[in-house]
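Record format v2
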Amino acid sequence: MELHIILIFMIFAAIMAVEIKDLISSVIALSAAGLGLCLAFLILKAPNLAITQLVVEILCVIVLIRGTINKDLPLVKDGRWLFNTIATLFSLAVLLLFSYLALKELPNFGAPLMRVSQEYISTGLEKTGSPNLVTAVALNFRGYDALAEAAIIFTAIIGTLAIARKIGKKDEE
Amino acid sequence: MKNKEPGMSLIVKTITRFTVGLVLVYGIFITLQGHVSPGGGFAGGIIITLAFIQLMLAFGQDEVLRKLNQEKGLLLAGIGAILFLVIASRIFLKPQQHSFVAEKHFQLLSAGFLSLSEIAIALMVAAGLFVIFLTLVLLIEEEEKEKK
Amino acid sequence: MSLYFLCFILFCVGLYSVLRKRNIIKIIIGLGIMEYAVNLFLILVGYRMHGRAPIFAKDQEILNMVDPLPQAMVLTTIVIGLAVTIIAVSLAIRIYEKYGTFDITKIRSLKG
């Protein structure tokens, strides 16, 4: 029941973040949605993710505010015509309808399949020596995933440096 | 930037002097205890980054740039990535020999190579995200200076 | 089931923002909302009724654990989402520097 309340709160915060005019208020509403997600992770028994989400949310808000502050927002004049909005909403409604049909086929909430995870839970402590099974799965059983994701983060670092570089820009002019 | 000295007011600077060490130690704690309690390399790395960012917001960027500039930070991130690659290939080659200490669970060193890779991930994430943040702030400053 | 559907509605709010808004910062915010919805959906699928967190304790026997596999996958996804957000913000700042606006309909000129 409390999960429903938190999810509805997150949806309202997301709608506010999308629809509000002021950019800084919009960023704050996004962070409200993120903190709701952190609470939902705690209720769903995922404390690792709750810690990570909380910390990431703080850094994300700092970056977004730093990026949008002092920008004189040139009043985005709404040239949206009615037909376009209606078409978008209609396609989203169709998407929701088919998602309803698809989500009915999933196993019920609270009864996952857990065929592979049973093995992890029963033998994880002896095989890896780590009582925290999330760390054990992320770094030992599924270690290649962690390796590739570290590569992705490193690529993101290099990409940001390449976008924001100053060398070579002067020579072009 | 109209003030004589960079950064925020005296109150913020005093509070920052007290808290920044605590935040840093908490990040290291989260990293090292990642196999016993909730936490791990990613969360601990970002907390360490947040300590540096707090220092930077309170004291101005020159203070931080003197200690850790972009090239040093990128070097640290590369060291972390290569360290993780080496440790990970060691795990993948011999997955059975996970631990190099006696078989005693719930200790600081009981996870063996898992803890080492957590430290490598934390080093890479902390240095890399701090370099990204520094680059972004310098980019914004540059642009604002050009506009004036 | 209703939880899954609410989660999908959250995804659709983000998708609406990406499709329909003209401000770049709003599009980045929409991407963030979609990422939240996907992460939450993966964790919802792995939840077990009256479960415990997947961490062994010293003296007690824990029988009923939730699925640790989606949690381990989502853990790295969150950090990657942060990196993607930072890349998008730096691209937006570059665009603002070149064209003086965040409006995506104004930046279609091929001035190079």
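The interface with chain C takes residues 37-38, 40, 42, 46, 105-106, 125, 129, 132-133, 135-136, 139-140, 143, 146 of chain B (CB under 8 Å).
Chain B has five helices and no strands.
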